[in-house]
Every structure is written in C-alpha cells, then in structure tokens.
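Sequence, please.
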C-alpha cells in the first residue's frame, strides 16, 4: 500500500496564502463566476519592477539641452532620436511636443499614452530616505514607510484594514501573484498569494487519489475531500486547515483559463491574465500586486536596434503585456475602475558605467495607467539633466515627487479611503497631482503618538558622501530577496 504524506511545503502551499482569505470569517463568501460582469468597485494593481529599472532609457529626453546632456552621459547607451530605432515621441493631447519619447520597444505604452490612459510622473521615488540598496528600497516601498522597517504590515494590508466602513464585503479583497507573499501584503488576514491558479491546489500522492474527478468510481472520495472533513475542529491547526480548504475551493470554483488569442507569451503576461480574470470574477478584488524582475543592468544593458539587446527585450515584455491587459479589460468594461501603478525601487545613474550598463541611482519615472487616469500628460517636476543640477545627488536624477503622493491620490479619489495616516504613517502634506479622476476627501486625522514616532525615524537627509547608503556597503548576495535574481560579476 502506498502511504500518503503531506510535506510542510505542500501544506503551506494551501495554507500560507489561505490562512488569509479564510481568516476573514463571515466575509469569505463564494462568489458565483461572473466573468461578464462589470465590477462596481475599484481595483488597484501595483506592478513592481524589481532591480532598479533604467527610467532614462524608457522615458527618453529627445530634444533641447537635456538631450545633449543625455548623449554626453551615455555616448554608447543612449536611445537615438532619429532613424529606425528612434524613441517614440510623446505629444500632448493637442499635439504639442513634450521633449520626451518612449523606448522604441514600448509601442504598447505609446498607444496607451496616445489614447489618454497613461500618465507619467517625473522623478518619483522616496523623497525622505536615500538608499541605493535594493533590499532597503524595495522593503521601504512595500511597507509604505521609507526608512522604517518595523511596522509589521504592508501598505496594501493597511489600506484594506483601514478601508471606509461602508465598503462592501469581498471574497478576495487582495491578491499577490508570485511564489512568495509580497511585503506590500505583509500581515494581511485577507490576502491570498498564488503563483498561478492552475498550481493553487494540493497535489501530493498519486494523481488518481488526489481528488474526485469525472472518471472516478462511484462513491470515491479523494484526499482533498477527506482532508476537508479532518479540518472540522477548533484547534489552531484545524482552523488553518479550514481556511486553506476555503481558499482552495474559492479558486477552484472560478473558471480560470488560458489567455485569449494574441495574448503575449511568458510568465509575466500569464500573471497579468490571472489578475485580469480575478477582477472579472467579481470577487471584490481591491488590491493586486505582482513583480517583474531582472532590471539590475550593471553590464550588457543594451539599447535599441537589431540583434540582441537585453533591456530592449525587457521593455517589450513589459509594454506588450500591459497593453494586452488594458485592452482585454477595457473591452469588457472593467478597466473603467482599474488603476495600474508601475514603479521600481529607484532609477539608474545618468552616466553609463564602463561595462555597458548603469549603476544604482535615485529618482525614476512612475507610470499610472487605466480607465480613470487623466493620461497623455506628465506630472511632477522634471529637474533636468544639467550636471550642476544633479551634483547635490551625486549625478543622479533627484526625487521631486514622493511616490506616496501618487498612491495617496489613488486611495482618496479611487478607493474613497482618506485614512492616509494609517496607510502611510509619517506621510504628511498631501496634495493631489490630478493624475486620476475622482472626488477629493478631507484627509483623516492622524494618530499623533504613532505618527510622530514614525516621522522621527522615516525622514533621512541626503547622504553626505557618494558611498553613503549604497548597496556596495554590503555584498549583494547577502542582501537580496528571492525576487532579485539578476546579478552580475560586478555585484558579486
């Protein structure tokens, strides 16, 4: 006889993301599969480009003095402004030139810009904390408390926990797509994390014994059905088992399928398709997060042209998948209530290095796209690329817009959530940029003691020396998380 065993990993696979949705108790209801329904609530999708995306070669200066400074700093790494592989010029709605273009592989993003559904925030990032460490910058952004790492919860977790009291219940309020839970959902009792819907199942033991199927003998009960009965008590293990079973059943009941014809290939595009379906299933999804890694281009970055260019391929992957995501949900009417935020932990240095790449920088463009976006416009303040302007930040584009200002506007105008002191402790002075449509609300009063303590620890002056706060202080291989895999010899 074959003995069935459930390894710790196999149990956690069902339980970790699921001690979550089930823990929400009575609000965990199984929604019917409403794939044609248009949601009556908003969804925020946060896409993290992990590794430090080179924003200057995505949003490219194409005219004026900044074009000259750009070419001087990157003689062999600049995107041309003429020819077959020229940057895609960005114009305002009236046709006026902006002085910027997109990487030639970003045709999908260019189309979203031209349709008025993409806005770009110049020089965004962490305005109160300067670091060139992937680990510190990523964690700071995910937690929503720059320079402060002891909050114990992610910003999306707090956004859901401190939602308006009249927010309708949700079966799946928050979703992380990946092999590990995003720190943005840290501490959540309502979020589910899964790599893919097809893999979100207990699959230990012989295939025929795992669960009841159409060709199973009459009266047969699989391991999964049997485990559900075993998890009927009130002990901690049994309660977690019930929650795991509830989450597994929730996902199983939805008709997750293959992408439509023409959908881009690859893991990232498939993950966006999973989010698109989760929005359509009418489960109450308010917050979704996923990563696209591989942006740490210290060497061999490549530019644009025929043949192999690493960065060019990454931009094409990003752009085509986002366009497919938008077009699919827009056709079904759901995109009117979906806002996608695309950001990286920091940008790259303006000057190229000697290895055909770029090193860690500071300010970076932040993209916001979706139906509610006031697009075809730049937001924030562009500082320019004059070396004298950049000298206080040691040759980096400075941060002129705190990324939390963008997130706060989306929370207030799209999610009806004015509890900024709870979602972003220590952040003050909110003023809308106007990047999304909606109604402004009075910001809720802060909890004085808690916020004061966070403000004291989250504000940090600019480094006094170019090496201050740099990732080079600690070897990369000791600092990286599982999503930051792209390493070069220089980093090791």
């Amino acid at each position: 006889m074959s003995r069935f065993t459930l390894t710790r990993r196999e149990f956690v696979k069902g339980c970790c993301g699921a001690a979550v949705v089930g823990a929400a108790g009575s609000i965990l209801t199984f929604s019917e599969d409403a794939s044609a329904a248009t949601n009556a609530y908003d969804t925020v999708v946060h896409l993290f480009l992990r590794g430090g995306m080179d924003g200057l070669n995505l949003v490219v200066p194409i005219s004026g003095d900044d074009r000259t400074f750009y070419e001087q700093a990157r003689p062999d790494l600049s995107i041309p402004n003429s020819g077959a592989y020229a940057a895609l010029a960005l114009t305002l709605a009236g046709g006026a030139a902006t002085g910027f273009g997109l990487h030639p592989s970003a045709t999908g993003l260019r189309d979203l810009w031209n349709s008025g559904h993409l806005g770009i925030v110049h020089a965004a990032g962490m305005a109160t904390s300067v670091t060139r460490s992937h680990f510190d910058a990523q964690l700071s952004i995910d937690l929503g408390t720059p320079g402060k790492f002891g909050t114990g919860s992610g910003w999306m977790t707090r956004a859901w926990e401190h939602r308006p009291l009249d927010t309708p219940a949700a079966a799946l309020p928050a979703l992380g797509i990946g092999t590990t839970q995003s720190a943005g959902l840290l501490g959540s009792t309502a979020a589910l994390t899964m790599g893919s819907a097809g893999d979100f199942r207990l699959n230990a033991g012989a295939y025929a014994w795992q669960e009841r199927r159409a060709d199973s003998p009459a009266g047969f009960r699989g391991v999964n059905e049997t485990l559900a009965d075993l998890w009927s008590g009130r002990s901690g293990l049994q309660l977690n088992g019930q929650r795991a079973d509830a989450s597994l059943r929730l996902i199983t009941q939805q008709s997750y399928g293959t992408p439509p014809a023409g959908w881009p290939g690859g893991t990232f595009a498939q993950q966006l398709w999973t989010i698109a379906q989760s929005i359509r299933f009418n489960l109450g999804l308010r917050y979704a997060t996923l990563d696209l890694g591989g942006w740490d281009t210290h060497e061999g970055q490549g530019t644009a042209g025929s043949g192999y260019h690493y960065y060019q391929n990454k931009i094409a992957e990003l752009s085509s998948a986002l366009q497919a995501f938008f077009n699919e949900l827009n056709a079904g009417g759901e995109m009117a209530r979906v806002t996608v935020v695309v950001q990286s932990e920091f940008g790259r240095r303006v000057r190229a290095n000697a290895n055909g790449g770029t090193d860690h920088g500071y300010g970076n463009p932040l993209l916001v796209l979706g139906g509610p976006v006031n697009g075809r416009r730049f937001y924030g303040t562009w500082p320019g690329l004059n070396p004298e302007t950049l000298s206080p930040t040691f040759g980096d584009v400075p941060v002129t817009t705190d990324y939390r200002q963008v997130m706060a506007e989306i929370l207030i105008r799209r999610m009806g959530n004015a509890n900024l002191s709870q979602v972003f402790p220590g952040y003050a002075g909110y003023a809308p940029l106007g990047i999304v449509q909606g109604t402004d609300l009075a910001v809720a009063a802060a909890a004085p003691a808690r916020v004061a303590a966070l403000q004291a620890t989250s504000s940090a002056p600019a480094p006094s020396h170019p090496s201050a706060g740099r990732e080079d202080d600690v070897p990369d291989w000791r600092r990286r998380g599982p999503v930051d895999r792209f390493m070069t010899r220089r980093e090791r």
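The chain has 16 helices and twelve strands.
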